[in-house]
Write a structure and sequence with these properties.
heterodimer, A: alpha/beta, Rossmann fold, five-stranded parallel β-sheet, four-stranded parallel β-sheet, globular, B: 435 residues, alpha/beta, seven-stranded mixed β-sheet, 18 helices, 15 strands, disordered N terminus
Chain lengths: 534, 435
């Protein structure tokens, strides 16, 4: 049993809904009690979809439990087929139905419908949304394309001379973070390379499209969390190679182009030479100097978190001070990536633990999901959203991909926006005593109200969950040693902008404790500054 | 706690049966329900009772539901959470009671400000028959008097949306202090109201000379209202079947009234209390007249938008019959169908009398069939949940999200105009937009 305040992912059947809802003619019959229909509003409200998700909920109640919930499933399924006439159906259980063990797969089979029916086994008490989406997509691909699988010894013939290579784009789903625009951007990029896109799946695909996935020369895996399992199966079955690079950021996009060119046997040099993105120049432009060494904390799904860390480090000149993910399935990849920055990855789906980590690290910027946006807002730190889970404002009206060269432009804009612009930062630093800047003045773009000096207001008993060893210990030892500040040093501290003041106080006290200095004077303050200066 | 909805005989065929009530026929249906479960009530209850925490014992779905229904991430430190059951619990590798004790201990250490903890049952906890009432007793022994620990079920297999509040308040009633048998008559207002509405009513009762007046739920668990044979209670919400029954078990008497929505509903609701407390009719008229007049003016303003328009209610909160009565009688709207998850005929007796003859009521839901009926009747305004609203808008139909009616102060004279405006806004908006 785990205490959860907010959850990063929904249950696995919501992942299955993301696949069904993305597609055109697939219907999902979910054995579920009343209330589970809440998931519809994720799609109709957060993503503003114009159609209800193609899901029928059997809606059993307490009084059905002793009688015949299986019969209820069968009639709901038969009625859904009659009403919606889908080309294929998914059947499965939500968490409660899993406990009553009605066997939707067997019941669906008994109905003998004239369409493919793909049964899903999604253990709700073990797995979560992304895994559910991945598993659903895999079983759907296997169930539908499997009918066309060649013999085991079959080899993919060489592409005929003069025929353009073609690929499938795998992974985009309903409710995905910028999936809609990533498809457009990557399709454009591939077209410019001379590669055709045969099919995008599951987004906007039909059951017939899925059946024909094996026809393409190779697969582009946009979101490994969702499509890697299916891509591996397609590789084994249809000998289709698939891409490993996720084209988020300039460097990754260039690597992706090279990888596609290698697989497709084409020459990428023209497209690489062009690389139509403003990010490299904007980042080199002198006004971006203030970005140098900004301390950023990154958290999200594995794909976006790893990509963001690379961009932050290599393309923005930030210091990555924390990197983590809630995707346990991809924990190893994130651990490996964290090592590149000398960090230990935070692998957790516990919101309180992530919050404690951010509080302890005191970054200058947070790149995360809407959960981290909330934490950052509370702490008065700038934040940009880089990953699901997202809220309605993360489905913008404008074209705003994360992938490809335009994606890099979008990322530059959206990450710089929450940061203090250079000169304002200087003015705040120089004229601390301007009455309008008062001690706790926020940078104007961060609004008002949320700002507070963090170390001073932080109450370790309430900020850190009980038994949290990482932050608890250091705070405790620091608390035992009581810092004694001389008044002039304390006053000087107030002249430091609030967003770094907590850090300055902590560093000075750490320095004083290590050197056994008491009281802390003006000199101690500046000695500590020199000691920790970057 | 089993919900009263379960005790009702319901026709189990998927074909709707029309009950032989000639004047107010009721379609009773079952099929897919596009409604929330009772856990959703936590979204407002955890703000209403300021020192209470709601711990759902359930699955990831439960946690996801509450944060999605709450619009996600509104409150930095919500006073609700979920103890998520995992495979170790189900496989018997972990003792679920020990696990629950561990979670509660961690929670109470983190939040020493919590004085009332509700263990809230869910579909999974009900199906595996996890006995939360025993857990609550066990934990209470450990934490009383600092923290009182109660339990109720908000599961979807037993409760629909606002029935969660009913179950919560019903669990609170046995905790209410006993009022002496010779205590003077007191009035209890039952059902969550926005604080501002509560304060308005409090002032009105004072002017009327009615008192003492208590509110359930209270804003703080340390000020639980007393109950006894001299308590008369007035329901502020129409979904409190179990709470009413248990209050009556403790001697309280219900004052039958319509609900305080609109000028008429508010007047009749206050009048029920005034009559029970022997308030002079002239004095009553003098006290309510200014509010009535303000409400009338405010409602009149919306009438030009709403008058003569037709409205179709999908079931959501059980507020539908009183809302429909308000729209029909004070705004001249035509009722096409008034759906409600559960029709409590006893508590709604006066509302049903006020509804126009021939109105089509429906109880329960088969959402696909109801959508067919809705499209066929082509109403000017559809009141429905968030899952249906945008798809219906995309078909070119005007909708009003019903959840806003639960999360907005709508009761009383001063809010009557706001309530009308909530229904008018979608129509005004459509008329304004030229894109």
């Amino acid at each position: 049993m785990q205490l959860t305040v907010w959850t990063y992912e929904g249950p696995p059947h919501v992942g299955a809904m993301r696949i069904a809802t993305a597609m055109q003619d697939v219907h999902y019959v979910l054995h579920a009690p009343q209330g589970d229909t809440y998931a519809d509003l994720l799609f109709t409200m957060i993503e503003r979809r114009q159609k209800r998700p193609p899901v029928t909920y059997t809606t059993f109640q307490a009084r059905d439990l002793g009688t015949d919930t299986a019969e209820l499933f069968k009639s709901a399924m038969a009625e859904a087929y009659e009403r919606f006439k889908p080309a294929a159906m998914l059947v499965g259980s939500s968490c409660t139905a899993e406990l009553i063990q009605d066997d939707p797969a067997g019941l669906a089979k008994a109905l003998n419908l004239p369409i493919p029916v793909v049964p899903l086994e999604l253990p709700s008490y073990q797995r979560k949304e992304n895994w559910g989406a991945s598993e659903t997509f895999y079983h759907l691909v296997r169930g539908l394309a499997g009918a066309k699988a060649p013999d085991a010894g079959w080899q993919r013939p060489e592409r005929p001379q003069g025929q353009r290579p073609c690929c499938n784009l795998l992974g985009p789903t309903a409710l995905g973070f910028r999936h809609r625009d990533d498809i457009t951007e990557i399709t454009r990029l591939l077209t410019s390379l001379g590669v055709d896109v045969a099919c995008v799946a599951p987004m906007d695909a039909t059951a017939a499209n899925i059946q024909n996935l094996g026809d393409a020369d190779f697969n582009v895996v946009l979101y490994p969390e969702i499509a890697e399992t299916a891509a591996k199966w397609l590789h084994r079955t249809f000998k289709q190679p698939y891409t490993r690079t996720v084209p988020i950021g300039v460097g990754a996009t260039r690597d992706f182009i090279a990888e596609v060119a290698e697989i497709a046997g084409i020459d990428p040099s023209a497209v690489l030479a062009q690389s139509p993105t403003r990010l490299p120049w904007y980042s080199r432009s002198v006004d971006s100097n203030y970005l140098t060494g900004k301390r950023v904390f990154i958290f999200g799904d594995a794909t976006h978190a790893i990509a963001a860390a690379r961009i932050a480090d290599k393309e923005f000149g930030f210091n990555v001070v924390g990197l983590g993910t809630y995707s346990r399935e991809q924990a190893r990849d994130v651990r490996d990536a964290a090592k590149l920055y000398g960090l230990e990855a935070l692998i957790s789906d516990d919101y309180l633990e992530v919050e404690a980590a951010i509080e302890a690290l005191e970054p200058e910027m947070v790149l995360g999901s809407q959960m981290e946006r909330h934490i950052a807002k509370r702490l008065g730190i700038g934040c940009a959203v880089i990953s699901a889970p997202v809220h309605v404002q993360d489905f913008p009206a404008r074209y705003s991909p994360q992938m490809g060269f335009e994606g890099a432009n979008v990322i530059f804009d959206s990450w710089v926006h929450p940061l203090m612009m250079g000169l304002e930062e200087h003015l705040l630093g120089m004229f601390r005593e301007d009455f309008e800047f008062h001690g706790d003045a926020q940078a104007s773009h961060l609004g008002h109200g949320a700002a507070k000096e963090r170390t001073e207001t932080q109450d370790p008993s309430s900020a850190a969950p009980a038994g949290d060893s990482t932050t608890g210990d250091s705070t405790a030892t620091l608390a035992e040693w009581t810092a004694n500040w001389r008044q002039d040093a304390e006053a000087e501290l107030k002249k430091i902008p609030f967003f770094v003041r907590g850090k300055a106080r902590k560093n000075t006290e750490l320095y004083a404790r290590e050197k056994g200095i008491s009281p802390i004077t003006l000199e101690t303050l500046y000695n500590a500054k020199a000691h920790f200066g970057r | 706690m089993t919900s009263s909805v379960l005790d009702q005989p319901v026709t189990c065929t998927s074909a709707p049966t029309i009950r032989q009530d000639v004047e107010k026929p009721v379609i009773r249906e079952r099929g897919q329900r596009e409604v929330f479960c009772g856990l959703t009530g936590i979204v407002w209850l955890h703000r209403k009772i300021q020192d209470a925490f709601f711990l759902v014992v359930g699955s990831r779905t439960c946690a996801h539901l509450i944060q999605s229904a709450a619009g996600v991430m509104i409150f930095a430190e919500p006073r609700f959470g979920t103890a998520i059951i995992d495979e170790r619990d189900l496989a018997g590798l972990a003792d679920m009671n020990e696990e629950l004790d561990r979670v509660v201990t961690r929670l109470l250490q983190r939040r020493p400000d919590i004085k009332l903890l509700f263990l809230v049952g869910s579909c999974p906890s009900e199906v595996i028959k996890l006995d939360l009432s025993r857990a609550a007793q066990r934990l209470s022994r450990q934490y009383m008097p600092d923290v009182r620990i109660l339990n109720y079920s908000g599961s979807g297999i037993e409760t629909t949306f606002t029935q969660g509040e009913d179950a919560c308040l019903a669990s609170l009633v046995p905790e209410l202090p006993m009022e002496d048998a010779d205590a003077p008559a007191s009035l209890m207002i039952v059902g969550s109201l926005a604080d501002v509405v509560e304060d308005q009513f409090r002032r009105l009762f004072e002017e009327l000379g009615i008192g003492p007046v208590h509110f359930l739920p209270p804003r703080n668990s340390r000020s639980l209202p007393p109950v006894g044979p001299n308590t008369q209670y007035l329901l502020a919400q129409p979904f409190l079947g179990d709470t009413g029954r248990i209050l009556e078990d403790r001697g309280a008497k219900r004052l039958s009234a319509p609900f305080p929505l609109g000028a008429e509903g508010t007047t009749l609701w206050l009048k029920a209390a005034a009559q029970a407390f022997g308030v002079d009719p002239e004095h009553f008229q003098k006290v309510v007249a200014p509010g009535q007049e303000r409400a009338r003016v405010a409602i009149e303003r919306q009438k030009k938008t709403l008058g003569g328009k037709s409205v179709f209610f999908f079931p959501d909160s059980q507020l539908e019959p009183p809302l429909a009565r308000f729209l029909a009688r004070e705004l001249d709207m035509t009722l096409i169908e008034v759906g409600t998850p559960f029709l409590h005929r006893h508590h709604l007796e006066q509302e049903l009398d006020l509804l126009p003859d021939g109105v089509q009521l429906s109880e329960g839901q088969d959402v696909e069939k109801q959508l067919d009926r809705c499209r066929d009747s082509n109403p000017d305004l559809i009141v429905c949940g968030l899952g249906l609203a945008n798809p219906l808008e995309a078909e070119g139909r005007a909708t009003k999200w019903s959840i806003e009616l639960v999360f907005t102060p709508i009761q009383g004279f001063e809010q009557a105009g706001d309530l009308a405006e909530l229904f008018a806004r979608p129509l005004v908006r459509r008329a304004r937009l030229e894109v």
